[in-house]
Amino acid sequence: MDTATIDNFRGVFRGSIILPEDAAYDDVRALYNGMIDKRPRLIAQCMDTADVATAVRFGREQEQLIAVRGGGHNGPGLGSCDDGLLIDLSRMTGVHVDPDSATVRAQPGCTQGDLDHATHAYGLAVPAGIVSTTGIAGLTLGGGHGYLSRLHGLTVDNLVEAEVVLADGQIVIANINRHEDLFWALRGGGGNFGIVTSFLLQAHPVHTVFAGPIFWDLAHARQIMAWYRDFLPEAPRQLGMFLGLKRVPSMAPFPEALWDRLVCALMCCHTGPEEEAMATMQSVREALPEPLMDGMTRMPFPAWQSAFDAILPKGLQWYWKGDFVHELSDRAIEVHLEHAARIPSGSLSLMHLYPIDGAVHDTQGDAMAWPCREATWSMVIAGIDRDPARAEAVTRWARDYWEALHPFNDGGGYINFMMDEGSERIQATYGANYPRLARIKGRYDPDNTFRVNQNILPAS
């Protein structure tokens, strides 16, 4: 791409074009995962859908590798590339709520926090993740599970319609009546089929919740994990509760006396009336030992969604691995405890078990691309540290932990919890849905233009 070529691109592009020699380049190219460093040849910061289509056509004409970045929260750094074109959607952050239909239309640069802020004013929320800095585009296209999933399903279960820029630059609308096969694939198939420039999402009545963390010393983890395994299937769907093994972060809002202590945590969010929430949590407290800390209280839902943003800022060292979990056996619990005891001191490393039940099980496994409706949990093991010098140590811890547990689990894992793990792992994740995804990929992106992702290879 010579200067004249780039100047011609500027003439038809409304957003900003950033080159390696520009002062803003290093800040704009920086990834959420500080362990990964990529240097695109050109960054196109889009202002609207027309810009996205223009950038896709330009990239194809110039035979450039194309990467796409939404909110920028991708762990393996698949929101960028080396020596190619980065189509950056982070400036496209418009959100419009329709209270009559309880729907919200969001652009692909929005974070979960942007959505929560807009919908909360109407007493609504969209099922999403657990950190407000998460990009809504990648979250949705990969599935999206969090505190509201047991009651209202995955984020992708609440996707009503998508505006999509295809690999040839064409703009289409995908829903249950138009481009039905594309809509099927978008709901869990990641960024393989085009660039979604508008998401229409179903929202639900959620305003104030009874939520917070409860911590026990790791010595109680065996009892709590076995209890959690048995309690969850009978728990009311209004209760979103995931289990974690971790060290207490050495920072507010946690009591200094607990900093860096190994704990078993239940992270809880009850969306029902206060008396129901109190009764449910009272039964939990009666069944379990006295905790080190019980931080549950009434709060606005967006406050809980953003409560731990400061702990996980952009630029930390990350290495994560995921699996879908069908059964939490006593032997698997022992493996968890063995590796949790080795969480490197001073790190933010963790294991989380997110529920995949309730409303998630109400949808058939072939109803959309998202593959694992029969799972009970989505597990993530994440090695996290502030210090680049400790990246190798937390990576080794996470890999060893996952390799020890993987034989207890079937098939693949949640694509939003994967590093760059190869085609075999992707096929294992999608299982019986993979052949159909490959055929749809072959129809909408036969040249695999959109391949900087958890890639599905196009069928011939």
Could you explain how this protein is built, in words?
By secondary structure, the chain is α+β, with helices and mostly antiparallel strands. The chain has helices spanning 3-11, 25-29, 49-61, 112-120, 136-142, 149-152, 180-186, 221-231, 274-287, 301-305, 330-340, 391-405, 423-430, 434-444, and strands at residues 16-18, 42-45, 66-69, 85-88, 95-98, 103-106, 124-125, 159-165, 171-174, 195-202, 204-205, 208-217, 239-247, 262-270, 293-294, 297-300, 317-325, 350-355, 377-385. Strands 12, 13, 14, 15, 16, 17, 18 and 19 form an 8-stranded antiparallel β-sheet that branches. Helix 8 packs across helix 11 and helix 11 (330-340) runs antiparallel to helix 12 (391-405). The protein is globular and about 70 Å long. The two termini are 31 Å apart. The model has no long low-confidence stretch (mean pLDDT 97).
For the termini, the CA-CA separation is 31 Å
Mean pLDDT: 97
Low-confidence stretches: none
Report the count of strand segments: 19
Estimate percent helicity: 25-40%
- Summarize the biggest pleated sheet: 8 strands, antiparallel
Shape: globular
> How large is the radius of gyration?
22 Å
Strand fraction: 15-25%
List keywords for this structure.
28% helix, 19 strands, alpha+beta, 5-stranded antiparallel beta sheet, 460 residues
Helix/strand layout:
Blueprint: H1 3-11, E1 16-18, H2 25-29, E2 42-45, H3 49-61, E3 66-69, E4 85-88, E5 95-98, E6 103-106, H4 112-120, E7 124-125, H5 136-142, H6 149-152, E8 159-165, E9 171-174, H7 180-186, E10 195-202, E11 204-205, E12 208-217, H8 221-231, E13 239-247, E14 262-270, H9 274-287, E15 293-294, E16 297-300, H10 301-305, E17 317-325, H11 330-340, E18 350-355, E19 377-385, H12 391-405, H13 423-430, H14 434-444
Parallel strand pairs: 2-4, 3-4
Antiparallel strand pairs: 1-2, 5-6, 6-10, 7-11, 8-9, 8-10, 12-14, 12-15, 12-16, 13-14, 13-18, 17-19, 18-19
